[in-house]
UniProtKB/TrEMBL annotation:
Lineage, highest ranks first: Eukaryota, Fungi, Dikarya, Basidiomycota, Agaricomycotina
InterPro entries, A to Z: ThiF/MoeB/HesA (IPR045886), ThiF_NAD_FAD-bd (IPR000594), Ub-E1_IAD_1 (IPR042449), Ub_act_enz_dom_a_sf (IPR023318), Uba2 (IPR030661), UBA_E1_SCCH (IPR019572), Ubiquitin-activating_enz (IPR035985), UBQ-activ_enz_E1_Cys_AS (IPR033127)
Protein name: Ubiquitin-activating enzyme E1-like
Chain residue ranges for the region called Disordered: 305-324, 551-617
A single cellular component GO annotation: SUMO activating enzyme complex
Length: 640
């Protein structure tokens, strides 16, 4: 018997004829073809799924090859899903694998598109995409297996609407935050300098031009503190000058020195003038470009004796010059090495700006940005008497990298298939959330699934898939139709993501088309009962079928129309709520471009009259101001 036939015999014997036959007809969506995805693709091909769609937005990086075994060196820079699909097709030529190079959040992957799949398997690496797929599967009632690994740890969770917890039922750890003053003025650990470099300095130099000078002129007109404005203006003008130099052809050499003088010398000198700040801490040392280059720079004795680095290495007597026998990235860099790296990385980034790249932000796999963050955070560390880090260590810290372990990915990919089989078989009592843990005595821990959390803002909504033509569908019409006759009299507010589109006292948008409100396929319209008696209705928009008559209604609702059940009062606020400040910053960028302006701007006082609306917005992460005088607590920097 051939190997392929033998494999089929074993799979049939293990799964049983019926399940085996079902797999051959089941369309499975695998989202992500990275570490877990490659292992998973191999598994779903070998277990006998007949139709596999593999979606990933990325291309292959050299650093993927140690564990993403479907890729070879010749494949670097090629599309992950295309290469993975071709490699895995050899395992079973009878399986149809459809690779899609794209972002799962793109609008064409709407609920109707999702509904073609019998099951969805996540092999993703970020919360945002996981949340999106979870919501789509809730809307389309599609079984989902969610997974993740971090070093030796792993988790697999089967999810089925109304039967189990969804991905958003349980709170996720929030991002790490640091006080702004620590990052801006008083760093004491390498991570503070890395965050400063990656999240602040890179943005100031290579990010969007925020016209800070214009904003300050405006603030002055509004009567803000003149002295403070003058200081801020000076700062903004200084940054504006270096930004200009970075964008001027052939000025990149002088630009690097200009940046250095500003951030490592002048700014430090200015900070030293705030004597109060340095009463109980070691003051920083302004750096000197030429002196470092000439090897003449000397730190004051006090800082050196406290363990701070000396000119060409560490002052603790162990190392006075960097070792050269280690790998390039793991080599310790001297002060002068860091300065040279700083100059060369600024030059390379300036050349990119001049070639037309408008914004450059940190990416651990972009050598120019990694060199810049390595050099600038280390120079700052030197100035503040903090031990510098190697490029390798900075890549780990700045990129939030936890080393990936191929074995963990392989185990998790196997567990995903086991849970997928439970879901497809309908063996709900056999389903387990499985944890791979760092406990030699119990490496695997399987726990029964929990029912949905009653307060979940995602899986407790009543989803209604709607096919519609957004250019002809009016907001008021679709909301009325979705409420149906039974709930026609209810007072509701309507949202798209964080935007308020209407509420009981404000119906200006009801006569507008969805398209004019920038609501298109792939998006959700949430209809919230103001009395909080009924669950939220969530309309999942997709496009009309090609044969839809042009003179027929521009939208199709399911018949019978799903009815929102009575709402169970949540015991606690929705767990998935990220920290206030991070959400404030994550408001959709398109908000500004959307006409008309949102209700928030129209009438800020309205929130206090509508507690349900206020709570919902807060759950969504909007920071609501009760009065015009209230100020935002904005003194944190978020690490993503
Ligand atoms: N929104 C998304 N749409 C499609 N694919 C996504 C999306 N977000 C993440 N992915 C893919 O999920 C995969 C996750 O795999 P993995 O965690 O191994 O990441 P990686 O980028 O390959 O490795 P590393 O981050 O360690 O370099 C990646 O290939 C990534 O491109
Ligand atoms: Zn949920």
């Amino acid at each position: 018997m051939s190997t392929a036939a033998l494999r089929t015999t074993h799979a049939k014997a293990i799964l049983g004829e019926e399940l085996y036959a079902r797999l051959a007809d089941t369309k499975v969506l695998v989202v992500g073809s990275g570490g877990i995805g490659c292992e998973l693709l191999k598994n779903v091909v070998l277990v006998g799924f007949g139709y596999i769609t593999l979606l990933d937005l990325d291309t292959i990086d050299l650093s993927n090859l140690n564990r993403q075994f479907l890729f070879r060196k010749k494949d670097v820079k090629k599309s992950k899903c295309m290469v993975a699909a071709r490699a895995a097709a050899h395992f079973n030529p009878n399986v149809k694998i459809t690779p899609i190079h794209g972002n799962i959040k793109e609008p064409q992957f709407d609920v109707k598109w999702f509904q073609q799949f019998g099951i969805v398997l996540n092999a993703l690496d970020n919360l945002d995409a996981r949340r999106h797929v979870n919501k789509m599967c809730m809307a389309g009632q599609i079984p989902l297996v969610e997974s993740g690994t971090a070093g030796y740890l792993g988790q697999v969770q089967p999810i089925l609407k109304d039967k189990t917890e969804c991905f958003d039922c349980v709170p996720k750890p929030t991002q790490k935050t640091f006080p702004v003053c620590t990052i801006r003025s008083t760093p004491s650990q390498p991570i503070h300098c890395i965050v400063w470099s990656k999240s602040y300095l890179m943005g100031q130099l290579f990010g969007e031009d925020e016209d800070a000078v214009g904003e300050l002129d405006e603030a002055e007109k509004q009567g803000e503190n003149a002295q403070e404005i003058a200081n801020l203006r000076k700062e903004a003008q200084a940054f504006s000058a270096v930004r200009q130099a970075l964008r001027t052809t052939n000025a990149q050499d002088s630009a690097a020195k200009m940046v250095f003088e500003k951030v490592f010398k002048t700014d430090v000198q200015n900070l030293l003038k705030m004597t109060d700040m340095w009463r109980s801490r070691e003051p920083p040392v302004p750096l000197d470009f030429d002196a470092i280059m000439n090897g003449e720079f000397v730190f004051p004795a006090k800082q050196r004796s406290s363990g701070a680095p000396a000119v060409n290495g560490h002052s603790n007597g162990i190392k006075v010059s960097p070792s050269t026998d280690s790998l390039k990235d793991q080599r310790e860099l001297s002060l002068k090495d860091n300065l040279s790296l700083f100059v060369s990385s600024v030059q390379r980034l300036a050349v990119r700006l001049q070639a037309g790249e408008e914004i450059i932000s940190f990416d651990k796999d972009d050598d120019d940005t990694l060199d810049f963050v390595t050099a600038s955070s280390n120079l700052r560390s030197y100035a503040y008497g903090i031990t510098p880090k190697t490029r390798w260590e900075i890549k780990e810290l700045a990129g939030n990298i936890i080393p990936a372990i191929a074995t963990t990915n392989a185990i998790v990919a196997g567990l995903i298939v086991l849970q997928a089989l439970n879901l497809l078989r309908g063996s709900y009592s056999s389903m387990r959330t499985t944890l791979l843990q760092f406990k030699p005595s119990v490496p695997l821990n399987a726990v029964g699934t929990c029912p949905p959390s009653p307060g979940c803002g995602i899986c407790r909504d009543t989803y209604i898939p709607v096919a519609c033509d957004p250019s002809r569908t009016l907001l008021g019409d679709i909301v009325k139709a979705a409420l149906g006759e039974e709930h026609a009299g209810r007072e509701v507010s309507v949202y798209e993501d964080k935007r308020v589109l209407s509420d009981p006292d404000w119906d200006d948008n009801n006569a507008r088309t969805l398209q004019s409100l920038n609501i298109t396929r792939g998006k959700f319209l949430n209809i919230v009962d103001e009395d909080e008696e009924r669950a939220t209705i969530s309309l999942a928009l997709s496009s009309l079928p090609a044969d839809h008559q042009p003179d027929a209604l521009p939208f199709i609702l399911p018949d019978p129309l799903p009815k929102p059940p009575r709402k169970v009062k949540p015991p606690a606020p929705t767990p998935a709520t990220p920290p206030r400040s991070s959400l404030k910053r994550s408001a959709p960028p398109s908000d500004d471009e959307i006409e008309p302006s949102s209700k928030r701007i129209k009438s800020s006082g309205a929130f206090s009259q509508s507690p349900s609306k206020k709570r919902r917005l807060e759950e969504d992460g909007l920071v609501l101001l009760e009065s015009a005088n209230e100020t935002l607590n904005d003194d944190v920097i978020i690490i993503d």
